[in-house]
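Sample pair:
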Amino acid sequence: MSDIKLVIAGAAGRMGHAVIREAAKTPGIRIAAGIESQSSTALGHDLGRMVGLAELGARLESDPLPVLAKADALIDFTRPQVSLALADLAAQARIVHVLGTTGFAEADEARIKAAARHATIVKSGNMSLGVNLLAGLVELATRALGPAFDVEIVEMHHRMKADSPSGTALLLGQAAARGRNVKLADARMKPHDGMSGPRAPGAIGFASLRGGSVVGDHTVILAGDGERIELSHRAEDRAIFAKGALKAAIWGQGKGAGLFDMQDVLGLRAGR
């Protein structure tokens, strides 16, 4: 089997650099190109040299169309509007699109589902193995404990993170909602601020903290009368997300069109 030809969107960013470093040492992966906006000062640079590695023979490009036409997979940690355009192009090219971008609106999700009729899209608010195992534990715990235990999801990220709550926090909220057989949109609380009144039974709350260079901390608190359970995950290196994304790119080869997530990639969801 020939190597998977990989394109990395947002290759000049922090996550892009992490993906380049991990992909360069992953057997079966050949980095074909990186994508950045036309304003990037790194356009034309070799991706290996860009992250302090030996030359890889893959350069940073601004036009995604020609590079995706020759690719097998795209890893994308960018911004919602960029990712939506890339999803459309991935659908045209019938390739695997690993989508780690967060902050999508409801209408955006519908557009991604439409693209997944032709592309193999693996979409997750977090690509790490640990977080996806945590989500499984949260679903199990909320199902066992029921609405007598209040659920609060606390997350902290670096000062530059734009979306709130984080995609990972929402992923954990979805797990809690599944455990209670409800929709997160119906159970989600408004942020605590001012005279917010007593907590509604069965509500799922979120708290977002921003500061410093924190990669990503998440804690799910299940608070009952007289006792409290806390399930936590702390990301210390962006390489964990890059490794998960590469695993998803490899897993998606030959799967056919559809919308998947990391639970599918890791075999944590029965029935697929």
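The CA atoms of residues 39 and 62 lie 9 Å apart.
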